[in-house]
Design a protein that fits this description.
The chain has 416 residues and is of the alpha/beta class. The protein contains 16 helices and 13 strands. Helix 4 crosses helix 5.
């Protein structure tokens, strides 16, 4: 760990943490800590979820949970704030009201957020956090803003994709950006979405800091070979991730007489529907669902796969693509959002028009027809490309500099 004198204390706020789909947040926190930053973990929920990764289990012991005491804990924090800082509470309440006017959720929900922000404000003060960083532009960003309005530390947040693309008008993005010290997009396309939804005068607050990987990740992975007929899809089983389209594409590849197998690593609300479709299309011998896997199991699955396939309908720039490329696996993915910033057709993968089942099947067939030399070249290029743009140490160094600047601008720390 690098020495900082005095150490910068930063609080991280996430809706649910840890979680199997949030390994990138854990990786970011650990990289910041290796640079001498003290990170306080705060989440709304996650204290009682099923976890399989030992690193996630360890993270849970380090995390404070806002909702663990239920309504009683929130009301207690709200009353205490009203007694100590009534004017601040009124200002924050007005901001919650403004957010409710642009939201699909009623004012009562945003007032509940205000109570949660009272808890967060007290905890960040108790541990001396000089900056609060939230992940996702939805309610975590609003909570960070309300905590700041309650005289909490300056804040920032990272938007990952669908949180600003699917429902931007409903989340008060112009308010959360206006009050933030800075905001982060994980790709250039994400930055463009900020530009689309907030006034031009706020554009200078938007920075691109990419999700990162440890340079050692996938270092020992062998290139894919023709012997492997397995394609791997990793992600939550949900509508926007597109697994139903992938199963349809698998049927087309099967009808073409091509030998392959498809592993869906993940779980989620659409598992039953996906399983039903697999059976209805007669693909039970070719397509399997593994459920959630820990980090070590994901690496093993990547090592057994020929390529990663991403059928998504809505994304920012998926971390799983980065992990596959670091493991020397080419990627089959859609021309969608930030994906073409990393996956290049004919170089480190195969791109297809999003939502086009026939084109997806054709890309799968092209991958399955590739010889050992082509797979090796694409895999090696993939690893070089991803580590060149997504080194976690380089990206979190950018983030640390932004934290330092925000704290210095707030006047909380005279020596950075």
């Amino acid at each position: 760990m690098l020495e900082r004198s005095p150490p910068l204390r930063v609080a991280y706020l996430v809706n649910q943490y840890p979680a199997g789909s949030h390994t990138f947040i854990r990786r970011e926190i650990h990289a910041l800590e290796s640079q001498g930053i003290v990170v306080q973990r705060i989440a709304l929920r996650g204290w009682d979820t099923d976890l399989i990764d030992p690193q996630d289990l360890a993270e849970r012991t380090l995390t404070q949970y806002v909702l663990v005491r239920g309504v009683r804990g929130l009301l207690s924090a709200l009353v205490r704030t009203a007694l100590v800082s009534p004017r601040r509470l009124l200002k924050a309440a007005r901001l919650a009201w403004l957010m409710s006017r642009e939201s699909d959720r009623p004012l009562a929900v945003h007032l509940a957020y205000l109570a949660e922000a009272c808890v967060i404000r007290r905890w960040t003060s108790a541990q001396g956090a000089l900056h609060l960083h939230a992940h996702f532009a939805t309610n975590p960003a609003e909570l960070a803003m309300l905590a700041h309005e309650l005289d909490g530390p300056p804040y920032s947040f990272t938007a990952h994709g669908s949180d600003i693309m699917d429902r931007p008008a409903q989340i008060g993005l112009q308010h959360t950006v206006r009050h933030a010290a800075f905001v982060v997009a994980v790709c250039s396309f994400g930055r463009s979405q900020f530009f689309k939804w907030v006034p031009h005068g706020l554009w200078d607050r938007v920075r691109v800091v990419r999700c990162g990987l440890d340079p050692e990740y996938g270092k020992t992975a062998s290139p894919a070979t023709q012997r492997s007929r397995r394609l791997l899809c990793i992600g939550r089983l949900s509508k926007e991730k597109g697994q139903l389209l992938l199963v349809q594409a698998a049927q087309l590849v099967t009808a073409a007489g091509i030998e392959f197998e498809l592993a869906l690593a993940g779980d989620g609300p659409m598992r039953a529907e996906i399983e039903e479709q697999i059976l209805r299309l007669g693909l039970a011998a070719r397509v399997r669902i593994t459920g959630w896997l820990d980090s070590a199991a994901i690496e093993r699955e990547l090592g057994l796969a020929r390529a990663l396939v991403v059928p998504s309908l809505s994304e920012g720039l998926p971390v799983v693509i980065m992990e596959a490329m670091a493991a020397r696996r080419p990627v089959i993915a859609p021309y969608l959002a930030g994906i073409p910033e990393l996956v290049r057709n004919g170089s480190n993968g195969w791109l297809f028009p999003a939502g086009d089942v026939v084109a997806l099947a054709a890309a799968m067939q092209a991958c399955l027809a590739a010889d050992d030399n082509e797979l090796r070249l694409r895999g090696d290029t993939a690893r070089t490309d991803v580590l060149g743009a997504h080194d976690v140490n380089a990206e979190t160094h950018k983030l640390a500099q932004l934290f330092d600047a925000a704290v210095a601008a707030s006047g909380q720390r005279s020596e950075i």
